[in-house]
Write a sequence for this structure.
């Protein structure tokens, strides 16, 4: 990824059934959340849907820092804080929805995609091999219905990436989708590529 004059280029992207891809440049404001002045353009492309599997909130892995290169408990709590309190996505108020549960298969799909984007230096919901998020979820062992994917680059913390997604209408809508009841999130081993995959259990 290109970095100019110490400016961190922050780009996010979301898929919700048919994908809506949002690329946004954000100038840091010297805070830990990198929530500075928003700008940028929107691009749209298409992506597939998918299926899902049912796991409990702590299916596999340990609490706290995990092999998904993030603090699982922290990031899940941040997502569920927004879901259970309700929030505003763009100009639309979103009522509270039920808390979402962690799923390791979705997190594995998220980790594989984050690491692949980092290793091959690209940023897209479509993998270099042509894969869609729903296919990657199935390949990771997920047996339910994948409902959406968010991706981001450049954030240094769980708080920052969730804040960025919630401040972007499409990504926020994805997080607040009441049809989704399972989630997996992962960060690349290096490079701060983030992927969130959501699903609905059978």
């Amino acid at each position: 990824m290109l970095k100019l004059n110490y400016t961190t280029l922050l780009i996010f992207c979301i898929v919700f059934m048919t994908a809506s891809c949002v690329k946004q440049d954000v100038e840091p404001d010297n805070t830990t959340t990198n929530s500075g002045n928003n700008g940028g353009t929107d691009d749209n492309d298409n992506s597939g849907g998918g299926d899902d599997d049912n796991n409990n909130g702590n299916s596999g892995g340990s609490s706290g820092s995990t092999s998904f290169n993030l603090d699982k408990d922290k990031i899940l709590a941040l997502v569920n804080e927004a879901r259970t309190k309700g929030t505003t996505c763009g100009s639309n108020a979103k009522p509270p929805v039920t808390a979402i549960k962690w799923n390791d298969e979705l997190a594995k799909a998220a980790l594989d995609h984050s690491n692949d984007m980092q290793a091959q230096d690209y940023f897209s919901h479509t993998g270099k091999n042509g894969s869609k998020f729903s296919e990657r979820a199935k390949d990771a062992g997920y047996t339910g219905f994948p409902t959406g994917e968010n991706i981001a680059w450049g954030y240094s913390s769980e708080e920052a990436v969730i804040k960025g997604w919630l401040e972007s209408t499409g990504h926020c809508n994805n997080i607040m989708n009441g049809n989704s009841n399972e989630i997996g999130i992962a960060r690349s081993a290096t490079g701060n590529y983030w992927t969130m995959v959501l699903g609905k259990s059978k």
